[in-house]
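Subject: design request, 132 residues
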């Protein structure tokens, strides 16, 4: 077998492995945590420009269960992005990875709309993480 071909294939394998490894190790930064009420409600989580820009979000719920209906992300330039979640979070569960429109964005605040009706004995804590 030709050693040049093997060398090229091995180099390509190493490159793909390295890129996949670094992307999977991208660090998530905690943007904030809120403890929700026992009702249909909405809460705001203030982030601010000092945290930097983000391209992705992820929601994690601990402590109790809740229904998350949607989130509205307000960017520093005043634009808003509505994200439909419609997800029933169990204690210790997380959302899908949410891609933000427009690439890396500075987030002013995140408002989330939820209910805990019939689900929770304990108050749920919602934590939002961002990735650059």
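Subject: RE: design request

Done. Sequence follows.
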């Amino acid at each position: 077998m030709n050693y040049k071909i093997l060398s090229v294939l091995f180099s390509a394998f190493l490159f793909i492995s390295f890129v996949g490894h670094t992307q999977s190790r991208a660090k998530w930064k905690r943007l904030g945590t809120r403890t929700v009420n026992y009702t249909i409600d909405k809460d705001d989580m203030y982030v601010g420009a000092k945290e930097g820009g983000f391209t992705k979000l992820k929601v994690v719920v601990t402590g109790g269960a809740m229904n998350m209906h949607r989130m509205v992300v307000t960017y520093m330039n005043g634009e808003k992005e509505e994200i439909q979640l419609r997800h029933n979070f169990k204690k210790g569960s997380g959302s899908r990875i949410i891609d933000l429109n427009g690439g890396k964005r500075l987030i002013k605040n995140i408002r989330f709309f939820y209910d805990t009706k019939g689900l929770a004995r304990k108050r749920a804590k919602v934590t939002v993480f961002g990735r650059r």
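The two ends are 43 Å apart (CA to CA).
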